[in-house]
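We emphasize that the prediction below concerns an isolated chain of 233 residues; any contacts that depend on oligomerization or on bound cofactors are therefore not represented. The input was used exactly as deposited, without trimming of termini.
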Amino acid sequence: MPPFPTRAPAPSAAERVRSILAAAHSVTVVSDGHHTEVRRLEGTGATGHFHLHAPFEDGDTQTATRMPVRLELTDITPAPARDRVRARVTLTGLLAAPYSTESTKSTCMEFGQAVLEDAQGTAYVTLHDLEATELDPIATSEAGMLTHLLDGHSELIPLLLRLVHPHPDSGILRALPVAIDRYGVTLRLEYPGAHQDVRLPFQTPVTDIDQAGPQIHVLLTTAHNLSHTQGIC
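Result of the prediction step, given as a token string:
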């Protein structure tokens, strides 16, 4: 019997978009014919740099005074894996004034829609979806957690591989953790010319960042016990 359900829980499109916006270190702003790369998002994410709000309902508001804008974000795993781009997010909307990199305040953006593109396909997310979704407590800490696991505890990765069912055949070249979210850890299994992502779900979804460590420990303990029951040293 596999140690985990065949269909492991995963973040919704709205959760993915919100996490990417919160954890972003840079965003490309396309408006008024200009492409501006904004890299000063550390600690604030795109949602700290842009304030998203619903379309104005005031009929007297002159649409002509508002400028179309597009925000482009790329979600990249810190793991040195193949195809490091996990997802791309595009937000469209309107600005009340031309975008300025000199502004020290959050830029007000009238939200149109968000588009998430990843290996699963394309999903469209509304402002209501984003507002109704709680931010994943791991989102802004994920990069540091993955880097710590890879650099400081790489010997644990083969142990996590024991949780994959069916167990990878001998053709696998390596396994790397490429994502951590409130629902679990994603391992990328790399083969010659191909790769596969496998989710290892936590016992229960994380509701506070302090729960992440213990949940990862449960995965490792399960893998350790599984190794012994299978007679693996």
